[in-house]
Specification:
single chain; 7-stranded antiparallel beta sheet; 5-stranded mixed beta sheet; 11 helices; 16 strands; elongated
Protein backbone atom coordinates (compact mmCIF):
# COMPACT_ATOMS: atom_id res chain seq x y z
CA UNK A 1 0.00 0.00 0.00
CA UNK A 2 1.03 3.63 -0.41
CA UNK A 3 1.65 5.91 2.57
CA UNK A 4 2.84 9.47 3.05
CA UNK A 5 5.85 10.44 5.14
CA UNK A 6 5.97 14.15 6.00
CA UNK A 7 9.02 16.12 7.12
CA UNK A 8 9.51 19.76 8.05
CA UNK A 9 11.35 21.96 5.52
CA UNK A 10 13.39 25.06 6.33
CA UNK A 11 13.91 26.99 3.07
CA UNK A 12 16.08 30.10 3.13
CA UNK A 13 14.84 33.49 1.90
CA UNK A 14 15.71 32.87 -1.74
CA UNK A 15 14.12 29.41 -1.71
CA UNK A 16 10.96 30.81 -0.11
CA UNK A 17 10.72 33.28 -2.99
CA UNK A 18 11.20 30.48 -5.53
CA UNK A 19 8.56 28.37 -3.79
CA UNK A 20 6.14 31.32 -3.78
CA UNK A 21 6.62 31.60 -7.57
CA UNK A 22 5.99 27.88 -7.99
CA UNK A 23 2.85 28.02 -5.83
CA UNK A 24 1.58 31.00 -7.84
CA UNK A 25 2.27 29.44 -11.25
CA UNK A 26 0.63 26.15 -10.28
CA UNK A 27 -2.39 28.08 -9.00
CA UNK A 28 -2.68 30.12 -12.22
CA UNK A 29 -2.53 26.99 -14.42
CA UNK A 30 -5.17 25.30 -12.28
CA UNK A 31 -7.46 28.34 -12.52
CA UNK A 32 -6.89 28.60 -16.27
CA UNK A 33 -7.90 24.95 -16.66
CA UNK A 34 -11.09 25.46 -14.64
CA UNK A 35 -11.89 28.62 -16.62
CA UNK A 36 -11.34 26.85 -19.96
CA UNK A 37 -13.68 24.03 -19.03
CA UNK A 38 -16.30 26.42 -17.66
CA UNK A 39 -16.18 28.45 -20.89
CA UNK A 40 -16.64 25.23 -22.88
CA UNK A 41 -19.62 24.25 -20.73
CA UNK A 42 -21.31 27.64 -21.14
CA UNK A 43 -20.77 27.45 -24.89
CA UNK A 44 -22.27 23.92 -25.01
CA UNK A 45 -19.00 22.55 -26.37
CA UNK A 46 -17.16 19.39 -25.29
CA UNK A 47 -14.54 19.78 -22.58
CA UNK A 48 -11.02 20.26 -23.95
CA UNK A 49 -8.80 17.23 -23.40
CA UNK A 50 -5.85 17.18 -20.99
CA UNK A 51 -3.39 17.19 -23.90
CA UNK A 52 -5.11 20.20 -25.47
CA UNK A 53 -5.08 22.09 -22.18
CA UNK A 54 -1.41 21.27 -21.65
CA UNK A 55 -0.53 22.65 -25.06
CA UNK A 56 -2.68 25.76 -24.74
CA UNK A 57 -2.16 26.66 -21.07
CA UNK A 58 1.50 25.71 -20.65
CA UNK A 59 3.45 25.29 -23.89
CA UNK A 60 1.82 28.12 -25.86
CA UNK A 61 1.17 30.30 -22.80
CA UNK A 62 4.93 30.47 -22.07
CA UNK A 63 5.42 32.19 -25.44
CA UNK A 64 3.04 35.03 -24.58
CA UNK A 65 3.89 38.20 -22.68
CA UNK A 66 1.09 37.64 -20.15
CA UNK A 67 2.26 34.15 -19.16
CA UNK A 68 5.99 34.19 -19.96
CA UNK A 69 6.85 33.85 -16.25
CA UNK A 70 5.50 30.28 -16.30
CA UNK A 71 8.92 29.30 -17.65
CA UNK A 72 10.56 30.28 -14.35
CA UNK A 73 9.29 27.14 -12.58
CA UNK A 74 9.54 23.41 -13.29
CA UNK A 75 7.23 22.22 -16.07
CA UNK A 76 6.37 19.14 -13.98
CA UNK A 77 4.76 21.38 -11.35
CA UNK A 78 2.49 22.88 -14.00
CA UNK A 79 1.60 19.51 -15.49
CA UNK A 80 0.69 18.15 -12.05
CA UNK A 81 -1.54 21.18 -11.48
CA UNK A 82 -3.42 20.30 -14.68
CA UNK A 83 -3.76 16.73 -13.43
CA UNK A 84 -5.21 18.02 -10.16
CA UNK A 85 -7.84 19.98 -12.07
CA UNK A 86 -8.67 16.92 -14.18
CA UNK A 87 -8.96 14.75 -11.05
CA UNK A 88 -11.24 17.33 -9.41
CA UNK A 89 -13.61 17.20 -12.40
CA UNK A 90 -13.54 13.39 -12.47
CA UNK A 91 -14.46 13.25 -8.79
CA UNK A 92 -17.22 15.82 -9.33
CA UNK A 93 -18.82 13.84 -12.18
CA UNK A 94 -18.42 10.55 -10.29
CA UNK A 95 -20.19 12.15 -7.32
CA UNK A 96 -23.03 13.36 -9.55
CA UNK A 97 -23.50 9.84 -10.95
CA UNK A 98 -23.40 8.26 -7.51
CA UNK A 99 -20.23 6.33 -8.33
CA UNK A 100 -18.22 8.03 -5.57
CA UNK A 101 -18.82 7.32 -1.90
CA UNK A 102 -19.25 10.11 0.60
CA UNK A 103 -21.02 13.48 0.52
CA UNK A 104 -21.81 15.11 -2.79
CA UNK A 105 -18.99 17.15 -4.27
CA UNK A 106 -19.36 20.49 -5.99
CA UNK A 107 -17.52 21.54 -9.16
CA UNK A 108 -13.88 22.67 -8.84
CA UNK A 109 -13.47 26.22 -7.57
CA UNK A 110 -10.83 28.81 -8.40
CA UNK A 111 -7.83 28.85 -6.09
CA UNK A 112 -6.71 32.03 -4.34
CA UNK A 113 -3.30 33.25 -3.28
CA UNK A 114 -4.92 33.86 0.13
CA UNK A 115 -5.79 30.18 0.58
CA UNK A 116 -4.50 28.80 3.87
CA UNK A 117 -2.75 25.90 2.13
CA UNK A 118 -0.48 26.07 -0.92
CA UNK A 119 1.16 23.03 -2.52
CA UNK A 120 3.12 21.80 -5.53
CA UNK A 121 4.02 18.25 -6.54
CA UNK A 122 7.16 16.79 -8.12
CA UNK A 123 7.10 13.34 -9.70
CA UNK A 124 10.14 11.18 -10.49
CA UNK A 125 10.67 12.73 -13.95
CA UNK A 126 11.17 16.15 -12.32
CA UNK A 127 14.65 14.98 -11.30
CA UNK A 128 14.36 15.94 -7.68
CA UNK A 129 16.69 14.14 -5.29
CA UNK A 130 17.97 13.86 -1.73
CA UNK A 131 21.58 15.03 -1.54
CA UNK A 132 24.43 13.34 0.35
CA UNK A 133 24.09 16.03 3.02
CA UNK A 134 20.42 15.18 3.60
CA UNK A 135 18.90 18.12 1.75
CA UNK A 136 15.98 17.98 -0.67
CA UNK A 137 17.10 19.21 -4.08
CA UNK A 138 14.17 20.59 -6.09
CA UNK A 139 14.41 21.85 -9.70
CA UNK A 140 14.61 25.65 -9.98
CA UNK A 141 14.32 25.95 -6.19
CA UNK A 142 17.56 24.51 -4.83
CA UNK A 143 18.68 22.23 -2.01
CA UNK A 144 16.26 22.79 0.87
CA UNK A 145 17.11 21.88 4.46
CA UNK A 146 15.01 19.01 5.84
CA UNK A 147 14.40 17.97 9.44
CA UNK A 148 14.52 14.17 9.15
CA UNK A 149 12.51 12.73 12.06
CA UNK A 150 12.78 9.14 10.76
CA UNK A 151 14.33 7.16 7.91
CA UNK A 152 12.43 6.65 4.67
CA UNK A 153 11.74 2.90 4.34
CA UNK A 154 11.91 2.95 0.53
CA UNK A 155 12.60 5.23 -2.40
CA UNK A 156 9.76 7.77 -2.76
CA UNK A 157 7.76 7.92 -5.98
CA UNK A 158 6.87 11.61 -5.62
CA UNK A 159 7.17 14.54 -3.24
CA UNK A 160 4.67 17.30 -2.48
CA UNK A 161 5.88 20.57 -1.00
CA UNK A 162 3.25 22.18 1.24
CA UNK A 163 2.96 25.55 2.94
CA UNK A 164 0.32 25.52 5.67
CA UNK A 165 -1.71 28.31 7.28
CA UNK A 166 0.95 28.80 9.97
CA UNK A 167 3.60 29.55 7.34
CA UNK A 168 5.40 26.24 7.82
CA UNK A 169 6.83 24.21 4.94
CA UNK A 170 6.60 20.42 4.66
CA UNK A 171 7.79 17.76 2.23
CA UNK A 172 5.32 14.88 1.86
CA UNK A 173 6.84 11.75 0.26
CA UNK A 174 4.75 8.94 -1.24
CA UNK A 175 6.19 5.54 -0.25
CA UNK A 176 5.22 2.02 -1.37
CA UNK A 177 5.38 -0.10 1.77
CA UNK A 178 6.91 -3.58 1.92
CA UNK A 179 4.36 -6.18 3.19
CA UNK A 180 7.15 -8.53 4.31
CA UNK A 181 8.82 -5.84 6.41
CA UNK A 182 5.47 -4.82 7.88
CA UNK A 183 4.68 -8.43 8.87
CA UNK A 184 8.08 -8.76 10.54
CA UNK A 185 7.60 -5.51 12.40
CA UNK A 186 4.28 -6.57 13.93
CA UNK A 187 3.91 -10.36 14.17
CA UNK A 188 0.50 -11.95 14.78
CA UNK A 189 -0.87 -11.84 18.32
CA UNK A 190 -3.67 -13.72 20.04
CA UNK A 191 -5.48 -10.72 21.55
CA UNK A 192 -8.68 -8.97 20.54
CA UNK A 193 -10.16 -5.80 21.99
CA UNK A 194 -13.33 -3.72 21.90
CA UNK A 195 -13.16 0.08 22.10
CA UNK A 196 -15.81 2.49 23.37
CA UNK A 197 -14.98 6.07 22.38
CA UNK A 198 -16.22 8.92 24.57
CA UNK A 199 -15.63 12.41 25.88
CA UNK A 200 -14.96 11.92 29.60
CA UNK A 201 -12.42 9.25 28.64
CA UNK A 202 -11.16 9.26 25.07
CA UNK A 203 -11.35 5.48 24.93
CA UNK A 204 -12.36 2.68 27.30
CA UNK A 205 -11.18 -0.82 26.32
CA UNK A 206 -13.00 -4.07 26.92
CA UNK A 207 -10.18 -5.21 29.24
CA UNK A 208 -11.02 -2.32 31.59
CA UNK A 209 -8.26 0.09 30.50
CA UNK A 210 -9.36 3.74 30.49
CA UNK A 211 -7.49 6.30 28.39
CA UNK A 212 -8.04 9.88 29.46
CA UNK A 213 -9.03 12.51 26.91
CA UNK A 214 -6.17 15.04 26.48
CA UNK A 215 -8.59 17.81 25.41
CA UNK A 216 -5.92 19.69 23.51
CA UNK A 217 -8.26 22.44 22.27
CA UNK A 218 -9.74 23.05 25.73
CA UNK A 219 -6.26 23.39 27.21
CA UNK A 220 -5.24 25.90 24.53
CA UNK A 221 -8.43 28.01 24.74
CA UNK A 222 -6.91 30.70 26.94
CA UNK A 223 -3.96 31.24 24.63
CA UNK A 224 -6.19 31.05 21.58
CA UNK A 225 -8.61 33.60 23.01
CA UNK A 226 -5.74 36.04 23.58
CA UNK A 227 -4.36 35.71 20.04
CA UNK A 228 -7.81 35.98 18.45
CA UNK A 229 -8.52 39.12 20.45
CA UNK A 230 -5.24 40.63 19.21
CA UNK A 231 -6.21 39.73 15.64
CA UNK A 232 -9.63 41.38 15.92
CA UNK A 233 -7.99 44.68 16.94
CA UNK A 234 -5.70 44.92 13.91
CA UNK A 235 -6.69 46.96 10.88
CA UNK A 236 -7.81 44.84 7.95
CA UNK A 237 -5.21 44.65 5.20
CA UNK A 238 -2.34 45.78 7.45
CA UNK A 239 0.93 43.90 7.99
CA UNK A 240 0.22 43.73 11.71
CA UNK A 241 -3.03 41.89 10.97
CA UNK A 242 -1.13 39.40 8.81
CA UNK A 243 1.31 38.79 11.69
CA UNK A 244 -1.56 38.37 14.14
CA UNK A 245 -3.27 35.91 11.79
CA UNK A 246 -0.10 33.83 11.74
CA UNK A 247 -0.08 33.74 15.55
CA UNK A 248 -3.63 32.37 15.60
CA UNK A 249 -2.78 29.81 12.91
CA UNK A 250 0.27 28.63 14.87
CA UNK A 251 -1.80 28.00 17.99
CA UNK A 252 -4.29 25.96 15.97
CA UNK A 253 -1.40 24.09 14.33
CA UNK A 254 0.07 23.21 17.73
CA UNK A 255 -3.29 21.83 18.85
CA UNK A 256 -3.74 19.80 15.66
CA UNK A 257 -0.18 18.44 15.80
CA UNK A 258 -0.52 17.37 19.45
CA UNK A 259 -3.86 15.67 18.75
CA UNK A 260 -2.46 13.88 15.68
CA UNK A 261 0.57 12.66 17.63
CA UNK A 262 -1.68 11.33 20.41
CA UNK A 263 -3.85 9.48 17.87
CA UNK A 264 -0.80 8.01 16.13
CA UNK A 265 0.75 6.72 19.35
CA UNK A 266 -2.49 5.22 20.66
CA UNK A 267 -3.54 3.65 17.34
CA UNK A 268 -0.09 2.11 16.81
CA UNK A 269 -0.11 0.68 20.35
CA UNK A 270 -3.56 -0.88 19.89
CA UNK A 271 -2.68 -2.30 16.46
CA UNK A 272 0.59 -3.79 17.69
CA UNK A 273 -0.97 -5.45 20.75
CA UNK A 274 -4.21 -6.78 19.20
CA UNK A 275 -4.97 -8.99 16.21
CA UNK A 276 -8.62 -7.93 16.13
CA UNK A 277 -10.14 -4.56 17.08
CA UNK A 278 -13.81 -3.61 17.27
CA UNK A 279 -15.12 -0.02 17.29
CA UNK A 280 -18.51 1.59 16.90
CA UNK A 281 -19.50 3.55 13.82
CA UNK A 282 -20.24 6.86 15.58
CA UNK A 283 -22.21 9.62 13.89
CA UNK A 284 -19.45 12.21 14.22
CA UNK A 285 -21.01 14.67 11.77
CA UNK A 286 -24.34 14.48 13.55
CA UNK A 287 -22.83 14.94 17.02
CA UNK A 288 -20.83 17.89 15.71
CA UNK A 289 -24.13 19.75 15.23
CA UNK A 290 -25.13 19.51 18.88
CA UNK A 291 -24.05 21.29 22.05
CA UNK A 292 -21.23 18.73 22.28
CA UNK A 293 -19.72 20.02 19.04
CA UNK A 294 -16.52 21.53 20.46
CA UNK A 295 -15.76 18.48 22.57
CA UNK A 296 -16.48 16.12 19.67
CA UNK A 297 -14.14 18.03 17.35
CA UNK A 298 -11.53 18.22 20.09
CA UNK A 299 -11.59 14.42 20.50
CA UNK A 300 -11.03 13.80 16.78
CA UNK A 301 -12.70 10.38 16.66
CA UNK A 302 -12.88 10.26 12.86
CA UNK A 303 -9.13 10.86 12.49
CA UNK A 304 -8.36 8.20 15.10
CA UNK A 305 -10.58 5.56 13.46
CA UNK A 306 -9.07 6.44 10.08
CA UNK A 307 -5.61 5.70 11.49
CA UNK A 308 -6.83 2.38 12.89
CA UNK A 309 -8.22 1.44 9.48
CA UNK A 310 -5.13 2.03 7.38
CA UNK A 311 -2.78 0.56 10.02
CA UNK A 312 -4.98 -2.53 10.28
CA UNK A 313 -4.72 -2.96 6.52
CA UNK A 314 -0.96 -2.38 6.55
CA UNK A 315 -0.12 -4.82 9.34
CA UNK A 316 -2.66 -7.55 8.58
CA UNK A 317 -4.98 -6.85 11.51
CA UNK A 318 -8.78 -7.06 11.46
CA UNK A 319 -10.81 -3.96 12.26
CA UNK A 320 -14.56 -4.49 12.66
CA UNK A 321 -17.00 -1.56 12.79
CA UNK A 322 -20.38 -2.28 14.37
CA UNK A 323 -23.55 -0.32 13.65
CA UNK A 324 -24.19 2.87 15.59
CA UNK A 325 -27.70 1.71 16.53
CA UNK A 326 -26.42 -1.30 18.49
CA UNK A 327 -27.55 -0.69 22.13
CA UNK A 328 -24.09 -1.18 23.64
CA UNK A 329 -24.80 1.01 26.69
CA UNK A 330 -28.25 -0.50 27.30
CA UNK A 331 -27.26 -4.16 27.20
CA UNK A 332 -25.91 -6.09 30.19
CA UNK A 333 -22.63 -7.69 29.12
CA UNK A 334 -23.14 -10.47 31.69
CA UNK A 335 -26.64 -11.77 30.94
CA UNK A 336 -27.49 -9.93 27.71
CA UNK A 337 -30.61 -8.21 29.05
CA UNK A 338 -31.49 -4.85 27.47
CA UNK A 339 -32.19 -2.40 30.30
CA UNK A 340 -33.40 0.57 28.25
CA UNK A 341 -32.01 4.02 27.36
CA UNK A 342 -29.96 5.96 29.89
CA UNK A 343 -29.01 9.65 29.94
CA UNK A 344 -25.34 10.58 29.61
CA UNK A 345 -24.99 11.54 33.28
CA UNK A 346 -25.59 7.91 34.33
CA UNK A 347 -22.07 6.44 34.45
CA UNK A 348 -22.95 3.30 36.47
CA UNK A 349 -26.06 1.15 36.45
CA UNK A 350 -27.29 -2.14 37.88
CA UNK A 351 -28.82 -4.81 35.68
CA UNK A 352 -32.43 -5.46 36.71
CA UNK A 353 -32.18 -9.14 35.70
CA UNK A 354 -28.87 -10.41 37.13
CA UNK A 355 -27.99 -7.55 39.52
CA UNK A 356 -24.54 -6.91 38.04
CA UNK A 357 -23.21 -3.40 38.61
CA UNK A 358 -21.77 -2.01 35.38
CA UNK A 359 -19.45 0.85 34.56
CA UNK A 360 -21.25 2.35 31.57
CA UNK A 361 -18.21 2.73 29.29
CA UNK A 362 -16.51 -0.56 30.21
CA UNK A 363 -19.78 -2.43 29.69
CA UNK A 364 -20.23 -0.74 26.31
CA UNK A 365 -16.68 -1.72 25.25
CA UNK A 366 -17.36 -5.37 26.13
CA UNK A 367 -20.61 -5.25 24.12
CA UNK A 368 -18.80 -3.69 21.16
CA UNK A 369 -16.37 -6.61 21.13
CA UNK A 370 -19.20 -9.12 21.54
CA UNK A 371 -21.25 -7.56 18.73
CA UNK A 372 -18.21 -7.70 16.43
CA UNK A 373 -17.98 -11.45 17.01
CA UNK A 374 -14.19 -11.47 17.16
CA UNK A 375 -12.53 -14.81 17.84
CA UNK A 376 -8.92 -15.91 17.65
CA UNK A 377 -7.45 -19.25 16.62
CA UNK A 378 -4.55 -20.97 18.34
CA UNK A 379 -2.09 -19.53 15.82
CA UNK A 380 -3.27 -16.00 16.54
CA UNK A 381 -5.18 -15.44 13.30
CA UNK A 382 -8.57 -13.70 13.62
CA UNK A 383 -11.63 -15.61 12.51
CA UNK A 384 -14.93 -13.90 11.86
CA UNK A 385 -17.28 -14.53 8.92
CA UNK A 386 -17.28 -11.57 6.59
CA UNK A 387 -14.54 -9.62 8.38
CA UNK A 388 -11.75 -8.34 6.13
CA UNK A 389 -8.83 -5.97 6.70
CA UNK A 390 -10.09 -2.40 6.46
CA UNK A 391 -9.36 -0.45 3.30
CA UNK A 392 -7.78 2.97 3.64
CA UNK A 393 -10.25 4.60 1.26
CA UNK A 394 -13.08 3.61 3.61
CA UNK A 395 -12.07 6.17 6.23
CA UNK A 396 -15.05 8.09 7.55
CA UNK A 397 -18.67 7.02 7.66
CA UNK A 398 -21.59 8.12 5.56
CA UNK A 399 -25.26 8.86 5.95
CA UNK A 400 -24.98 10.65 9.30
CA UNK A 401 -28.15 11.57 11.19
CA UNK A 402 -28.29 15.22 12.08
CA UNK A 403 -29.16 17.58 14.89
CA UNK A 404 -30.73 16.56 18.19
CA UNK A 405 -31.65 13.12 16.80
CA UNK A 406 -27.97 12.25 16.53
CA UNK A 407 -27.31 13.40 20.09
CA UNK A 408 -30.25 11.35 21.33
CA UNK A 409 -29.04 8.23 19.56
CA UNK A 410 -25.54 8.71 21.00
CA UNK A 411 -26.90 9.11 24.55
CA UNK A 412 -29.09 6.02 24.16
CA UNK A 413 -26.28 3.70 23.16
Amino acid sequence: MQLRYSFRLYPDTGQQTALAKAFGCARVVFNDAVRAREDARKADQPFPSAAELSKRLITEAKQTVERSWLGEVSAVVLQQSLRDADTAYRNFFASLKGERKGPKLGPPQFKSRKDSRQSIRFTANARWSITDHGRLSLPKIGAVKVKWSRTLPATPTSVTVIKDAAGRYFASFVIDTDPTADAARMPATGRTIGIDLGLTHFAVLSDGTKIDSPRFLRRAERKLKKTQKELSRKQKGSKNRAKARLKVARVHAQVADARREFHHQLSTKLISENQGIAVENLSVAGLARTRLAKSVHDAGWAQFIGMLKYKAERYGRTLVTIGRFTPTSQTCSTCGAVDGPKPLNVREWTCSDCGTVHDRDHNAAINVKTAAGLAVTACGAPVRPGAIPAQREETGSHGFPTGHRAAQRHSNR
